[in-house]
Write a structure and sequence with these properties.
Blueprint: H1 4-40, H2 48-63, H3 72-79, E1 87-91, H4 99-102, E2 110-114, H5 122-134, E3 139-145, H6 149-155, H7 163-170, H8 181-203, H9 205-212, E4 217-223, E5 230-232
Parallel strand pairs: 1-2, 1-3, 3-4
Antiparallel strand pairs: 4-5
Bound molecules: zinc ion.
Zinc ion (ZN) binds next to helix 6.
């Protein structure tokens, strides 16, 4: 025979079970809804500062594993007629730093230019001028990273085919001393970002003009391959 206490306990268990099932359904339903609604209405980006805020928010979403730009089929559909990326990222070829992923930007939201050591050349400047002047991109980010092989190559005076002239372009950025190699790599990567930004401004009147008119900003950043965090300089 069931005692009153046992009976109450059974009711309570059933109630908890029903509540947890309902909650589970609700949560999964909400997740689907929020993903669909967010990816259909990207944040409205009008100014360069809006673009910078979205990149900072995107890296935070990536760090917290709360990405919203992951419905690639929907993004292909949304961008099949045209593209209006809000930012352009110039980064290293390093396999650990795909900008679309680390900024949670999916398809169609950012232009990406990648070259070992994230330096500029006339082809890259031309790509930046297309992005900013023709497609209305609001922000250029030059992003270096920790533990960069290209920076290490520069410090070690590495020579190899066409890589030799590429590394020579980074050489003026060397900062610090080899007694603390990790610090030297990071400080040189930062200096390289600063020098690359200065070169872009010096060598592209198109970009300088857009910045002067307030239509464009250029920012430097360092990506930490050990944490996934982007720090803007
Ligand atoms: Zn690198």
């Amino acid at each position: 025979m069931m005692t009153k206490a046992k009976f109450t306990g059974t009711i309570l268990s059933v109630a908890i079970l029903i509540a947890s099932c309902t909650q589970g359904q609700k949560q999964s339903g909400n997740t689907e809804l929020s993903n669909a609604s967010v990816s259909k209405k990207h944040p409205i980006i009008i100014t360069p500062d809006d673009a910078l805020t979205e990149l900072k928010n995107g890296n935070q979403r990536f760090l917290e594993n709360k990405q919203i730009n992951i419905n690639y089929k929907e993004e292909i559909e949304a961008t099949k007629a045209d593209q209006r990326p809000h930012s352009l990222i110039l980064s290293c070829v390093d396999s650990r730093i795909p900008p679309e992923i680390i900024f949670d930007q999916g398809i169609g939201n950012i232009f990406v230019v990648r070259v070992a050591g994230n330096i500029e050349d006339p082809n890259i400047l031309g790509s930046m001028e297309f992005a900013t002047k023709i497609k209305g991109t609001k922000l250029i980010v030059v992003m270096g990273h920790t533990k960069c092989g290209a920076i290490k190559g520069v410090i070690d005076n590495a020579e190899l085919g066409n890589l030799t002239q590429l590394l020579a372009q980074i050489k003026p950025a060397i900062t610090g001393d080899k007694s603390n190699m990790e610090l030297m790599l990071t400080e040189t990567a930062k200096k390289n970002v600063e020098l690359t930004i200065a070169d872009i401004l010096n060598q592209s009147p198109v970009i300088s003009e857009l910045i002067k008119d307030g239509k464009l900003k250029i920012a430097g950043a360092i990506y930490d391959v050990a944490t996934g965090k982007v720090s803007f300089l």
